[in-house]
């Protein structure tokens, strides 16, 4: 096929955020928009000639169209082979696993994660490096810089490739290998967890619901939970991936995964519930009438890691993002292993995992994972919990409350104000940045220090600034303010609130009650209502 060089002009704003470039489908569908970004990626990652690329996405609207374009551009740019998940499907953690297993020159993942999909909704793209993780900031900055000066892209003129039949075909001299997106991933999970114990637990009556939210984990969960582990048919809900996620918001939290929350409520509810997001990297964990915060989930899994065969020899360290609660740090201290605190976004865990400084990682935003891949991994967390439940034979609630009794409880909540005016949001952050708070008394709390979190990567020395305003009190309580880097409309303010409660008689108190005074302080301090017009957050987790 003929290679065409198409002249183009730069689009402004092709700057990857917390996890890749996310925009409305309408933006991506403009002529040259996707092409410019993809060419900028190929121009920024070194010599691609003769290399292999992994390609796939969460199945949302525009996924197949984008894949056809990227295949033709990969061929024109000299790649020898592209491995595509059948149907264009590949969860984010499965993409990471496949990049690592086949030692490819990285991969391109098409997803806007938990953001809604459809012609009027969101699309996204990101490049993952050969280690399997999201490109670090140096690379995303180079890609962005390239998009600002790009003058041409290369593409072959050829017919679309069949993505639905397994096997290898040729595209302009390049090999396109359509592979089973589930098999390698399922095999990896089987190598980490005690499938025999989990199978026995299901056989003796453990009941579970997994909500795939009509997103990418449907086929993965059905294969692993129902086929390989013998959970009854119907354990997986909403298991067929749809281009618009059934008009849903594929975000596994208490607001958007309401079907699951309802299913886990009341007498006769299953023992265990879990959900994952659009691209399969997030997880929410529920017991009967019990919600496990992602921060607690990481702490509990770390404390119980040796029950899972893949982690029988213990953990090298635990890493968490800065706004994540300090519950995992307490486990690390007890285990005598390092606890790391990184900026928000999985890309910051990569160097720690590569260097063998951490084994488990997590974020308060429903992200949990380990060194088995370089992305957070929703089903991994679900299987880790199943493994722990199968061995300990206790309820989710009993395991978590026993954990709090042993370690104390880091009472935690996040309040999101979505879709606020971008200028107002910037103004609010600027206002907080300048506040002289050290030593000031706010209600019952005295400010120990406040800053804008900056991080120096302990492995490669790279520095990331302005990663969130921290107000830390003398008793260790914290309020953190950040603006989201994944949204596509206006701005989203995230307020993270945390207080340590050592007293077990107070562990049952609802976090919104236990944190009420800090929540009020946060609102006052940031002047949220005056600056955004909002009296209440849109989402509380
Ligand atoms: C959010 C979360 C962050 C997560 C990121 C990508 O980013 O807070 O912890 O890593 O989403 O997750 P932000 O900048 O909107 O707060 V995913 O599942 O969208 O790839
Ligand atoms: Co995601």
Count of spatially separate domains: 3
Helix coverage percent: 25-40%
CATH top level of the largest domain is Alpha Beta
User: How far do the termini sit from each other?
Assistant: 52 Å
- Structural class per helix/strand content? alpha/beta
How many helices?
18
CATH topology of the largest domain: Alpha-D-Glucose-1,6-Bisphosphate, Chain A, domain 3
- Please state the CA-atom Rg, rounded to the nearest Å: 23 Å
- Tell me the name of the CATH homologous superfamily of the largest domain: Alpha-D-Glucose-1,6-Bisphosphate, subunit A, domain 3
Hetero compounds? alpha-D-glucose-1-phosphate-6-vanadate, cobalt (II) ion
- Molecular shape: globular
Walk me through this protein's architecture:
This protein is an alpha/beta fold and 541 residues long. It folds into 3 domains: 3-181, 3-Layer(aba) Sandwich (Alpha-D-Glucose-1,6-Bisphosphate, Chain A, domain 3); 185-407, Alpha-D-Glucose-1,6-Bisphosphate, subunit A, domain 3 (Alpha-D-Glucose-1,6-Bisphosphate, Chain A, domain 3), CATH 3.40.120; 409-540, Alpha-D-phosphohexomutase, C-terminal domain (TATA-Binding Protein), CATH 3.30.310. The protein has 18 helices and 27 strands. Strands 2-6-5-3-4-9-8 form a 7-stranded mixed beta sheet, with helices on both faces. A 7-stranded antiparallel beta sheet has the order 20-21-24-25-26-19-27. Helix 2 (33-44) crosses helix 5, helix 7 crosses helix 13 (378-392) and helix 10 packs parallel to helix 11. It is globular and about 70 Å long. The mean pLDDT is 96. The site of cobalt (II) ion (CO) has 7 residues, from loops. Its cofactor is Mg(2+). It catalyses: alpha-D-glucose 1-phosphate = alpha-D-glucose 6-phosphate. Residues 1-17 have a biased composition (Polar residues). InterPro entries: A-D-PHexomutase_a/b/a-I, A-D-PHexomutase_a/b/a-I/II/III, A-D-PHexomutase_a/b/a-II, A-D-PHexomutase_a/b/a-III, A-D-PHexomutase_C_sf, A-D-PHexomutase_CS, Alpha-D-phosphohexomutase_SF, PGM. It holds the Pfam family PGM_PMM_I.
């Amino acid at each position: 096929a003929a290679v065409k060089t198409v002249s183009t002009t730069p689009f402004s704003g092709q700057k990857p955020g917390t996890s890749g470039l996310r925009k409305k489908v309408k933006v991506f569908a403009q002529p040259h928009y996707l092409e410019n970004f993809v060419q900028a990626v190929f121009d920024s990652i070194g010599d691609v000639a003769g290399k292999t690329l992994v390609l796939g996405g969460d199945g949302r609207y525009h996924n197949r169209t984008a894949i056809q374009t990227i295949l033709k551009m990969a061929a024109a740019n000299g790649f020898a082979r592209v491995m595509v998940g059948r149907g264009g499907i590949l969860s984010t953690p499965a993409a990471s696993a496949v990049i690592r297993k086949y030692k490819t020159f990285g991969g391109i993942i098409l997803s806007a994660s938990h953001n809604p999909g459809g012609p009027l909704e969101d699309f996204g793209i990101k490049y993952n490096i050969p280690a399997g993780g999201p490109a670090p900031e140096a690379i995303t900055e180079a890609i962005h810089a390239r998009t600002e000066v790009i003058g041409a892209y290369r593409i072959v003129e050829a017919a679309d490739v069949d993505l639905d039949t397994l096997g290898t075909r040729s595209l302009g001299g390049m090999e396109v290998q359509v592979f089973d997106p589930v098999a390698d991933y399922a095999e990896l999970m089987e190598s980490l967890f005690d499938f025999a114990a989990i199978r026995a637990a299901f056989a003796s009556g453990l009941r579970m619901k997994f909500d795939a939210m009509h997103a990418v984990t449907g086929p993965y969960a059905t294969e692993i939970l129902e086929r390989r582990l013998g959970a009854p048919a119907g354990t997986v809900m909403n298991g067929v991936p749809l281009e618009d996620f059934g008009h849903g918001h594929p975000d596994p939290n208490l607001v958007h995964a309401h079907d699951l929350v309802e299913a886990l409520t009341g007498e006769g509810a299953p023992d265990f519930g879990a959900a994952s997001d659009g691209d399969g990297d997030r997880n929410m964990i529920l017991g009967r009438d019990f919600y496990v915060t992602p921060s607690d989930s990481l702490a509990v899994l770390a404390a119980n890691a040796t029950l899972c065969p893949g982690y029988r020899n213990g953990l090298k360290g635990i890493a968490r993002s800065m706004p994540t609660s300090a519950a995992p740090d307490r486990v690390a201290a007890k285990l005598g292993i390092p606890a790391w605190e990184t900026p928000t976004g999985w890309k910051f865990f990569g160097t720690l995992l590569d260097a063998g400084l951490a084994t488990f990682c997590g974020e308060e935003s429903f992200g949990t994972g380990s060194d088995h891949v370089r992305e957070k991994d929703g089903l991994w967390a679900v299987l880790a919990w199943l493994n722990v439940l199968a061995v300990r034979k206790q309820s989710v609630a009993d395991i978590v409350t026993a954990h709090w009794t042993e370690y104390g409880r880091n009472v935690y909540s996040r309040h999101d104000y979505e879709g606020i005016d971008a200028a107002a949001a910037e103004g609010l952050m600027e206002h907080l940045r300048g506040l002289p708070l050290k030593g000031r008394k706010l209600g019952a709390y005295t400010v120990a220090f406040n800053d804008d979190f900056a991080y120096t990567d302990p492995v490669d020395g790279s520095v990331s600034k302005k990663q969130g305003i921290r107000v830390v009190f003398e008793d260790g309580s914290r309020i953190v303010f950040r603006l989201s880097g994944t949204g596509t409309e206006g701005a989203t303010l995230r307020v993270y609130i945390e207080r340590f409660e050592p007293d077990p008689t107070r562990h049952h108190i609802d976090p919104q009650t236990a944190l009420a005074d800090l929540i009020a302080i946060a609102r006052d301090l940031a002047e949220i209502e005056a600056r955004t017009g909002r009296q209440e957050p849109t989402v509380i987790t």
